[in-house]
Amino acid sequence: MRFLKFILIAVITLLIIFTITYSARVSVLNYLVKTQFNSDKIALTCLNVSLTSNMAIRVNKACLQTPKANIQIVGMTIQWQLSPSLNITDIDIGLAEIKGTDHLFSKKDDALLNKEQENQNLSQLLSTSLQTYAQQIKQFNLPAKINVTKLSYSPFTLSNKTETKYIANLSTLANNLSFTLTTSESVAIIEAKLTREKEGFSIAISSKLSLLKSFLSAHRLPITAALTDNLTASEISGDFNTQIKYRASSISLKNQISNISIISENGIGNSGPFKLLGALNFDSQFDLIAKETTNEISAKDKITVALTFVGKNEISVEYSQPQLLAKLTQAGLSPTMMSILEENPLTHVTIKPQGDARLTLNDSKGYLSHLEISAFSGARPHQVKFDNITFALPTPQTPYALAVERFVIDSQLKLVNIAKYTPAPVALHLIGSLNKTEQTTTINLTADSSITLNNIVVLKQMTEDKNNNKTHNKITTKTSTAQKPQALLSLKKLTTKLTGSVALLEDNNLNIKLKVDNHASQLNIPKKLKITSFNIFSELNGNFDDIQLNAQASADGVKLGNIVLTGPVKSPNLVIAAKNLQLTDLLSLNIQLPTEVELIDGLLDYNIFGQINALNNIENTPFNVSVAITSLSGEINGIWLQELNWQQHFSLLAGKITTQPNAKENLTVELIETVTPISKLSINTNWTFDKSFQLSANKLKANVLGGSFFIPNIQWPVEHGHSVNVQLNSIDLEQVLALDEKQGIVVTGNISGQLPVTFDGDKYIIEKGELHNISNGLIQVIDNPAVEELKANNSQLKLAFDALQNLHYHQLSSAVTMADDGYMQLNTVIKGRNPDIDNDVNLNLNLSYDLLGLLESLSITQRFEESLIKGLQKKKE
């Protein structure tokens, strides 16, 4: 526009020449230029004028000198008419040459402009400057048809630089002005058309960005030196088309920028090299409203820019990941976020704005209906979608604010801590809304939000303890150099669904209100447990100082219990509990027990309570545990148990389990159905487990063999010198002999006594045991093959066995010992009467009984048998 003004000055000057005086020539015209254009910086330095045969004015040559450029016009013809008034009808210029003599923009002018801008807000500045330019264009009126066949323009260059020349064409017809700027090779740089309309004007502009950049770079633009260097060092290409319309203080634009390419090897500032590709197509509109005289911002001050994105809108940016990380580190980004970026390098990011946008300039408020941002880490996609974004940038009048009505995040991230357990990335699918102010940030998540992990494996490795030469299991996530680690636990898939809100408060505290549904599929603990589906549903409320978590766990549809976490996050109270769990339901799970269990009834209650002092050292947290099994009935390893009840309270610390004392018997069994049924069993147990199992019990009693037994104290494992006093009461001898039936032997009556069993460190022995009858009984030895053989070979034994054929005894007592061979020796005294021989009988017998065989026949529990019998067999074998 500045060069067009120079040309018009020249044309009007020539008209004045011919209407006032021809003879005064240059001196008069210079005076008129100064007075008409109020400028003493423009000078007419040469003029060659003539009249054609049709009275047209022919300017063969005219020269203008300005502070910024020298203008030479050659071959200009001016057509004019006198009637009905003096009027110029056509102006045709064959050639206009403009050669820059100084930079178009001076630093002084720029400084003044910046100073003025400091005193105005953006709304006021645009309202003032844009309205001024718009009114000038609207009022711009050309007196005639003008055509400039060729306009040659050479920007100002320093003496040591090559001169660049541009060619332009300019023409006006009625209310239209057309302008074309090309290179010296006739390649179009800018094409523009201005059309004056009744209430305003319209401008259509198209350009090649690469050529436009070269054209602008040839001028000293009013921008910083750093920005100039960046512009010069960048490769810019693309096609730019825009249509501008001005109506009643309203400006609307239709913009199309296609095939954008900006490549910067050095980057801008510290950004590092980058490459920008894409296209933008959008319509925009904003109103220019007069500035209010008051300092307060009112609705009349606002300039709102409205945008509508149409067609393809996509910007893809490729950049240097190391440079970005270095810049973010300097900016103080948290180590956690830095770790995520390092593990998930993004080679490029694509931005897609869509829909409508709005920006209020004076209060810096904006709106965007839809925005998509996508990127890739190798083959792993990351995508974020935002709907209905509103924001307010901080100003003296308005605080910072950001709101997103709906967002969708889909990403596959690799995380260092998770990589210990799975090589697969974490799949994020988060849907919700966002509200952010200077004080708080609130994220609301919908029910469709989820976090998914696949192929999780927790490993264990065997480590040798040099102190005790024992081997222990240790959870690990790295492969041992000594041996391949084994899987401790594996999951095919773990999905966490989130619903609720998380708010970051001004004091960096979190306010949480979430519902969390964890679902694990194909949970496998080798040789112990296989579960198809495992669920924990929890509700989480509160903040770091007071958190409340309530959760319910289930496996394959079977309820497992509840989890409650309360108190401060750093030291919360934890309760894990369940009541009335059906043992039959629990056994329906694929649990690989060490022995066969088939139950028909039974309930389980448990409660685990403790205060966690450090989440990263939870194994050293003391827990109080209580367990109760009630009304258990069924077969365990082929042995029928009926109405088993067990209650136990114990503490758990650092892997050590210690029971708490019980005031009374805590284990009772109504019936143990073996070869020799045991009923009414009760015992008070205490035990510990710390790498090994230790049991101490007292008051063990039960009904057996028609009587009962009682053991005051017992412990396991049995240590050297430990003695167990087995007290027998009213044992039915007939039922005892039924355990090992012998042909022709009958014994009745009941006995009591005690058997002190002592462990000498290698074997079990009995010393000073005694048995005695508590009722009269009968002994009959008739038709026993072994006895008959003894009677035939020994006359003394014949007399004794004859007495035993029908002995009604009133005294039966034995001194009991047991050697290391497992046979119990009974030094027995029998006193009674045999009515068949009508004679009193007084016998002293030494009997041997296979206690090992007796215990085998009882078959109370397999583990007790194996341990006890193994100790007895050491010597017997």
Descriptive terms for the model:
44 strands; rod-shaped; alpha+beta
State the end-to-end distance: 119 Å
User: From the helix content, strand content and strand pairing, which structural class follows?
Assistant: alpha+beta
Helix content: 10-25%
Low-confidence stretches: 20-39, 108-120, 290-300, 462-481, 857-865, 867-877
What is the mean predicted local confidence, pLDDT?
A: 80
What is the radius of gyration?
A: 52 Å
Could you say which overall geometry the principal axes of the C-alpha atoms support? rod-shaped
Percentage of residues in DSSP E strands: over 45%
Individual helix count: 15
**Quick one: how many beta strands?**
44
The main sheet comes to: 44 strands, mixed
Write the layout of secondary structure elements.
Blueprint: H1 2-20, H2 25-37, E1 43-51, E2 57-65, E3 69-81, E4 87-100, H3 107-118, H4 122-139, E5 145-154, E6 166-173, E7 176-183, E8 188-196, E9 200-208, H5 209-217, H6 225-233, E10 234-247, E11 250-264, E12 274-287, E13 304-309, E14 314-319, H7 321-330, H8 335-343, E15 348-360, E16 365-377, E17 380-392, E18 401-413, H9 416-419, E19 426-437, E20 441-465, E21 470-476, E22 486-504, E23 510-525, E24 529-543, E25 546-555, E26 558-567, E27 573-582, H10 583-587, E28 590-591, E29 597-611, E30 623-636, E31 639-653, E32 656-659, E33 667-673, E34 678-689, E35 693-704, E36 707-716, E37 723-732, H11 733-738, E38 745-747, E39 750-759, E40 764-773, E41 777-781, H12 785-793, H13 795-803, E42 807-818, E43 823-834, E44 839-850, H14 851-858, H15 862-876
Helix pairs in contact: 1-2, 12-13
